[in-house]
Amino acid sequence: SAYEAFRDLPVQVRIGALDLNKPLLLWINDGLMAIFFLVVALEIKREALSGQLAERSQLVLPMLCAAAGVLMPALLFTAFNRSDDAAMRGWAVPTATDIAFALGVLALLGSRVPTAMKLLLSTIAVVDDLIAILIIALFYSHGLSVTPLIWAAAALAAMVLLNRRGVTSLGPYLALGVVLWVCVLKSGIHATLAGVATGLLIPHVDKGNHIDDEKEHSPLETLEHALHPWVAYAILPLFAFVNAGLSLSGIELKDATAALPMGIVLGLVVGKPIGIVGAALLMRALGWAQFPAGMDLRAMIGLGLMCGIGFTMSLFIASLAYAEPLLYQEAVLGILAASVLSAIGGFLWLRAVLPAPGPRNA
Fold first, then answer.
1. What DSSP string describes 266-284?
2. Is 293 left (phi over 0), alpha (psi -120 to 50) or beta?
3. Three-state DSSP class for 110?
4. What span, in angstroms and rounded, lies between the C-alpha atoms of 95 and 310?
5. 3-state class of 203 per DSSP?
6. How many Å is the Cα radius of gyration of the chain?
7. In whole angstroms, how far apart are CA 18 and each of 179, 193, 220?
8. What is the pLDDT of residues 158-209, one digit of tens each?
9. Would the pLDDT of 270 be above 50?
10. Which secondary-structure segment (H or E) carries 21?
């Protein structure tokens, strides 16, 4: 009861006619997660302009692997739940990869993990996040209101104008981002998309800069590095705390093997590796792309298993898809089970197939 009371704690902000009155759970999911998506958008833009996504020739493998890694879990989930319209609202739940947890598990394997695997996993996860953002925009927005949308468009236009005028100060962009968030929240489009739009419009004026004390960073990198610790150590743990709560009282085996949680488990644990590895094998057979240096088929299978860790984004999509407590609890059960199975399975598989690091030279 204390946990439910914390989630339902009413929080109100009122300025004149503007009245935002929501339980704490929605302030976290609509407000703090907008900051998380802001950081995701900053990362995507940086990678596209000066990082792993800048080389178009290197994009074929991760883009098609990510797309197949979204499609196959969705198909498996649909196969289990196609007769249940309410459950089908969560078809996108098993399509996401949690990059932080996946890279964290890889880190446990130490130096035996080739650098190319870490780069491929992070690139697939970035593309995966972009697809998830598009899915949220297209399928989880409802009841559009025209007037707030007009004001949101005006805020976006102002940020575009700031870019055109070469303004690099973060203050005006962040102020307009807050206005944009309020307008999007009131419009019926999910408020986190305001964070995405703001992140994509933060300027990245120095494409070749690096993190050092002698060179001025671009506004994008300055904001990304300022927000990243808050997102990693405060926002995401708080989001997980209020969204991953699961009462185990009364749960039986039949609940864990119901169509909805089983669709999520099979989508993440089986669908992700089948889609990713299948796409990689097909591209290699067609001569479109090769496995990265230091990776063979067994390593690709391990990477596919790691991509089945869907925790954060899967929980977020489930919160948008299921208003009914029972369906949401079943979804959380499936997400937690799938993420644990993928993490353990991927770790054990890679520990068995990757060569152990050799002794250090004297």
1. HIIIIIHHHHHHHHHHHHH
2. beta
3. helix
4. 8
5. coil
6. 21
7. 12, 20, 30
8. 999 999 998 999 999 999 999 999 999 888 888 888 999 999 999 987 545 4
9. yes
10. strand 18-23
Q: Which comes out higher in pLDDT, residue 88 or 137?
A: 88
Going by pLDDT thresholds of 50, 70 and 90, the confidence category of residue 250 is low
The residue whose two tokens read 């899967």 is: 314
pLDDT at 361: 42
User: What does residue 21 show for φ and ψ, rounded to 5 degrees?
Assistant: -130, 105
Give me 177's structure tokens: 């981002």
Residue 308's closest CA among 67, 77, 61, 97? 97
What is the per-residue DSSP string for 162-189?
Answer: HHHTT---HHHHHHHHHHHHHHHHHHTS
Q: State pLDDT tens for residues 130-148.
A: 888 888 888 887 767 889 9
Q: What is the pTM of this model?
A: 0.80
| Arithmetic mean of pLDDT over the chain | 87
CA distances (Å), origin 61, targets 56, 232, 336: 10, 28, 28
Domain positions in the chain are: 2-141+190-353
Between the CA of residue 204 and those of 4, 42, 193, what are the distances in Å? 42, 9, 20
For residue 152, give the 3-state DSSP assignment: helix
Alpha carbon separation from 40 to 43, 98, 177, 275, 296 (Å, rounded): 5, 12, 15, 23, 30
pLDDT for res 211: 46
Q: Which fold has domain 2-141+190-353?
A: Na+/H+ antiporter like fold (1.20.1530)
